[in-house]
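[agent] plan:
  1. take the single chain provided in the ticket
  2. run structure prediction with default settings
  3. attach structure tokens to the ticket
  4. add a short note for the reviewer (M.T.)
[agent] executing step 1
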Amino acid sequence: MSVGVVMDEQDFWVRLEFRVCAEFQGFEDRHLRWYWCDGLVPEEYELLAAEPCIRGRAWCGPSGQEPWRFVLHIGRGARTRAEIPWAALLPSEGATGWLSPDPGSKTLLMSPLAGCPE
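[agent] step 2 finished; step 3 output follows
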């Protein structure tokens, strides 16, 4: 996603949900390819932490309905929610390596700024 694109927070979470689904489909692990995401609910904004992130609930798994947790690493720079560069945090369609699911602990780790172009 281009940094110049205007995107609000609500739009970001919907678009990220679809990117998570697409990333699951592209995993080498055939089991994970059947997983999908049916929603992301941000709960904690840790913007001033040593590693700034947003934590929350995700609905994922083979049914897309299992309660999971997520951590979205956002990088430094934003001191308030209004300063978060939402468009810059959305991984492009060709980016890979930014999503690390752990089905055992039902956790998604997302580092969109670390994703690699395909």
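[agent] step 4 note for reviewer: The mean pLDDT is 90.
[agent] ticket updated
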